[in-house]
Amino acid sequence: MKDRAPKAQTLNTSKPLTVPPTQRDAVLLQAMKGQPDITSETHPPPMKRSHLMQAVTQAGPRRSARLHARQLSINQDTPLESCHEPQITADAESASKRAGLSQASIQQFDVDQHQPSRATENTRQPKPLERPYSSLSEPKVEREDQLYPASLLWTRHNSNSEREHQPKRTRLTREALALFNKMGEEKGKRASAPAPLEAIVESSTTKTISTTMSGFAMQASRNGILDPLDSKPPVNLDDIRERHAQSRETASPTESAYEGYVKTVGLAPNEATMVVEVTAGLLKRCPDKGYYRAFNQAFTGLTEDAGFNNGLSAPQPDFVEGLKRNEFRPLLIEDHVDGAVLYKDNPKSMTLPHLAGEFKGPGKDLEKARLQSAYDGAALAYGRNQALNCIGKPTIAGHAKITTFTTDGTHLNLFAHYATPSEDGTAEYHQYPISSTNLKSSHQDFRQGYRQLRNAQDCAREESYKLRDQLKEHRKAKNSQPAPLPSIEDKDGCHIIDRVPIYQPAPLVPFGPKHGKASVSQPSHSIEASSPSAADIASSRGYKRPGFHRDRRGQARK
Fold first, then answer.
1. Which stretch of DSSP H or E encloses residue 93?
2. Which InterPro entries match (predicted)?
């Protein structure tokens, strides 16, 4: 047999390389660091593995270059803590421990160059740190050079954007704590300090019921506001109806005016439009400077718990017409009559009106408007009664001077209002119907409703001025009367007017004959005349005290 040259053994790349752990670590570290194989020089392998080492030695340059190229790609994706070790000792086992490589991680470096993605798929991706919200500085767990370049760029971008939106944190120091405590003490002092008188706003803590709530009808009935079924007709009902039916000096609306009203009201979509159109078509405007009308204004000047408004919100009619407050000057009406001034803190407030109205949109419930007008009429009747009581002329029992109306553009209803005392002494407020007209049924009915409403306006205006004149005359008469003179009473019960008596000097006695010594004598009664007694004063004024008489000298004697 011919001696054949030993055939070089080739490395099968289809199977994983089975290298002893110690030698494998040394080879891998040599490829990473680009250093000569220290382990092969210091620790020679056993003889039974010489053939494997010979193959590795023969393929050393190519394998080292390939591992070096792979390592460069791995270093760009996956950080290895072994790359940052300060030195590599001869002990391969300790080197592998310091490198942080386990048996499972070493097997990921497969020698097959056709499967490079297996290492990156099995490599654990580092998670970006979530920094807790704290004012204290915290140590970094991971260094920036251990992160992927893309992850590092993303982390820096997000951290910069978060710093822009986050408030600036203050370091936890003794000075910061002292400042924080001081700020807390100042805030507590400001909160506990009493508010100035100018900042105190009067507010009612009592829960009230508005006119649109379900419990309004029950509370109004408890306050003495009666509905038309329980109300009694006023004594002057016939006079009111006759006055409302009187013909007017001005011309009645024409047929074209009636047709225009029907068209306008038929197109009105809501209550606000109805208020404007009905006001322009039916109501008149008073030319007087001190007499005006207001819309949808609450009666904030009324006293709470006046009887008729207990537990209810302030009345707020859609329409009210009356005198302004300055028309009652020089009388300060708000100081003498409760419920006269309707709007609080308003020098031009409406005062003691006699007419109010409620509007509803098309197709709405007129019964609710009727209930609201009952509340409005009770408020006006209350103010009128208070004014009459102030001048000492109580209202005539059963006479109605207050008028309200309700309308939805089609139906017009007028009511008379007055107050009477009940059995327990509280007031009952009546609401009795005067007339009801369908404004759209015919031209004749439209003219009738037009005339009735405008005559009701004239009656309310006359009553407002009449009541104003009575209040002003009462004040004038009271100021023109002289003040009563004070009087005293003596021991016997006789009244003596305390007037200053007129004292006359005693008459002079003529000089007598000269006896060598001049002397002036004064009669004894001159002293009494100079100081009159109470009996003398009483007798001079026409009073006579019992048990006294006068003598011929005019002196009072028992």
1. helix 92-98
2. DUF7924
CA 70/CA 63 separation, integer angstroms: 10
Give domain limits for the chain: 21-120, 216-480, 484-558
Against a cut of 0.70, is the pTM above it? no
Q: Is 479 helix (H, G, I), strand (E, B) or coil?
A: helix
Nearest of 409, 429, 431 to residue 419 by alpha carbon: 429
Q: Tell how far CA 264 is from the center of its chain.
A: 38
Residue 525: both structure tokens together:
């009664």
Q: How confident is the prediction along the chain (558 residues), in pLDDT tens digits per residue? A: 445 555 555 555 555 555 555 555 565 556 555 555 444 444 555 454 444 454 444 445 555 556 666 665 555 544 444 444 444 444 444 444 444 444 444 444 444 444 444 444 444 555 555 444 444 444 444 444 454 545 444 555 555 555 555 556 667 787 887 887 878 776 655 554 544 433 333 444 568 888 888 899 999 999 999 999 999 999 999 999 999 999 998 889 999 999 999 999 999 999 999 999 999 999 999 989 999 999 999 999 998 888 999 999 999 999 999 999 999 998 899 888 998 999 999 999 999 999 999 999 988 889 999 999 999 999 999 999 999 998 888 777 889 999 999 999 999 999 999 999 988 889 999 999 999 999 999 999 999 999 999 999 999 999 999 999 999 998 888 877 766 655 555 555 555 454 444 545 555 544 444 444 444 444 444 434 445 555 554 445 444 455 555 555 556 555
